Write the structure tokens for this entry.
Amino acid sequence: MVEACGAAPQGLDAFFAPRGIAVVGASAEPGGPGHQIVAQLQQTHYAGGVYPVNPRATEVRGLPCYPTVLQVPGSVDLAVVVVPAPACLVVAAQLASRRQQRGDAAAAVVVSGGFAETGPAGRDLQDQLARTLRAAGIRLVGPNCLGVADAHTGLTTSFDLGPYPAGGASLLSQSGAFVMSFLQWARPLEMVGLCKLASVGNMADVSLTELLAYLAEDRCTRVVGIYLEGVQDARGFVQTAARVARRKPVVVLKPGRTEAGGRAAQSHTGTVASPDAIYDGAFRQAGVVRARTVSEFYGVVRAFERLPLPRGGRVAVLSAVGGPGTVCVDEVASEPRLQLARFSPRTSQQLRAVLSELATVGQPDGYVDMTGALVARTHGDALRVLLEDDGVDAVILLTPPPAFLDEQEVAQSVLEAYREQPPDRAKPVLVVLTFGDAAMAARKTLEKGGLCTFEFPEEAVRVLARMVEYAQARHRFQR
Amino acid sequence: MVEACGAAPQGLDAFFAPRGIAVVGASAEPGGPGHQIVAQLQQTHYAGGVYPVNPRATEVRGLPCYPTVLQVPGSVDLAVVVVPAPACLVVAAQLASRRQQRGDAAAAVVVSGGFAETGPAGRDLQDQLARTLRAAGIRLVGPNCLGVADAHTGLTTSFDLGPYPAGGASLLSQSGAFVMSFLQWARPLEMVGLCKLASVGNMADVSLTELLAYLAEDRCTRVVGIYLEGVQDARGFVQTAARVARRKPVVVLKPGRTEAGGRAAQSHTGTVASPDAIYDGAFRQAGVVRARTVSEFYGVVRAFERLPLPRGGRVAVLSAVGGPGTVCVDEVASEPRLQLARFSPRTSQQLRAVLSELATVGQPDGYVDMTGALVARTHGDALRVLLEDDGVDAVILLTPPPAFLDEQEVAQSVLEAYREQPPDRAKPVLVVLTFGDAAMAARKTLEKGGLCTFEFPEEAVRVLARMVEYAQARHRFQR
């Protein structure tokens, strides 16, 4: 919990563990972003002080409102600024005064747009803003961003995130829409637990690199996902990413593989993109996982958040649906990082014992078609056998939402087998339920139980391949 | 509507337009597949006769039940058989008698498994079954399948399809799970309209090739989607597919690209897969679209079902979300079949007139970042300008479920601009809403209005690339 009193937080902690937050530009009427940010902080039960600031209001959502940050009585470590761009300079000067007088106000998130992304005049404004704050010793995230959040404490400077399942995935993004998209997408099935979030916007001061280094030390962050368009100091970013990747997975989605994509990135955040090949080779060497598509980024981040790392690329495919199972085998065999597992004679024998006579085992090796002749418990029984085989590093399980089986019983059976694994030798299990919303309830149970579910076999295969890629890089570092 | 009396249907029409259906093996108690099939036919308001057959029941779901097919009084063109494999031979003999005595009973769907897919003994059983029916002039779909359906008439021999939105997509599949998965996946947002469906199972008689030729003549089929594992006569299949592709799109998902995938396919349906390269080259020459993944198959089939064909590969990307828009530009530029459009000076000028000053137009050419500074109507206004530019063949539109805009107003604005197009020169519009269920309502409105929506930019880009591939093949044929 964040305390409203106590010592001032140091460095970037002022963004992520402030004693109090001033929301500068919070209107009394619903609708505006400032009002919304106050509402969000109330909904997420943020425990620190929340201080609306607006000379034209005396109260916002039941909280006293102050004419400027200078009048806020409590400790304000972080100011969120949503006033129009030119007025931000006035606010910056007030923050500087406050910092000089009170010693707090160490951090500002400027949400407002209208700066470098709009052209030369905006860039001048941004430079002035950054100068004023820097001279006062105030760090700046933004402008033109959604700012920061921490799902564990309810901290948020975004106007539409809402309470979010807390977990181990921290996200850094040069696109507010991108990161919100991921979180909204994952929300209904609670497919990812969020730790810290920073939408960095124009990066006039605090950079992706600095935030990434900060997250390396953050104990609740298990994986860092980054949407990257371009940074000034590409070399420094990659070096930091390499350092972090030795401790926890770093997943990057970086458009700009093509010249056109590079130009779009440039017009979006005003950052100069370095040639893509520089990043690509450096990431590979650094053990940074580069997701190739949006869907792969979502999948890889959430897999690292909750699944154990595979020890190698030997995959067993366990299917109750012949067609999708066949597609899955094809995809596994096409991925250079993966191979179908070779079942031990004991495994084949045990599988035959728990499966129907109609089932086919090991055609090809590593593949089990349970067929539709099964009960809910069969899923867990077969999975248990596979997880106990030392020649299997990971299992992809495909099952329909069974027309004749209880969906929740199937999910429970799978979860039990997964959880019986000894924690130090646990293997990842990726569950594919290709039936869209018809499989919603089973997917939710599995996700809540700590497994990762997917709609398409190809998705699960690609995610697993990226996990193996990272595991292999880790082995390399440890030698 | 199907009439319970009138002339006997000819050829495969006995499967798709029977005057009456006998469900052999329908139990009085809910739960079994036969009972379920009767329930489905009632739920879908199938207008033909429905005759449960079971010596141990007198009534099933309010319908009189007959001891064998020989006692059914009305015309029975199609028998659906769900009794255990050995008993199927008895039913086959009864069907043969009936056909001789009454002249109907021209078609049978054998749903039951336990035939060639289980080994030599099952194969013998299957051969006997096929021989008996063939000798009597009865065509057979299956065994080991879900059989046939027609969403326009409510015909179904499946036990878990339910009433389905009717439309122009016909599906042929060597995996029941695969085709059910697609239909269930698409159902909540009504992302595809179904015409005819055949899950062919072991293909002891009626083959994929014959069904495909039948669908070529079917006026309500606008696109044929096929899940193919392997056929005996690969050459004949490809030749037929090539003929059909000249008239309507044929989309194939065929695993077996790898040796392991080929073996999995073989163990699944017992079909011998021809070397994959034969198919691959032949499909390309034939103008048959080969989907590379499950998700691509789903997307391409539904795009062909409802969108006009693009004339070429010149794409405009219209985005309200900078990050996903940038990813989309990258994906378009990476697809050999697609190019970013070159805006005419008039288009650029008109775009600037309808967009905010913050928007960027043509950086790179073909790309518009509307930014968040927009109202609902802006979407339609900008789309209209792009659709009127002769240098634009298709538009990919990316928008968030807007925090400050009315989702339905955005959808309506897009739909209006799309529908104003002259029908003979209409261009496809693919809408990307990356926010998962948060965008459900807008997606539903757009899909109902005849547009295709996607969760990920890469999905839309790949689907469009396959559409262009087909359009180019059509041009080639017409020269």
Observations:
- The longest helix of chain B spans residues 457-478.
- The mean pLDDT of chain B is 93.
- Chain B touches chain A through 83 residues (CB under 8 Å).
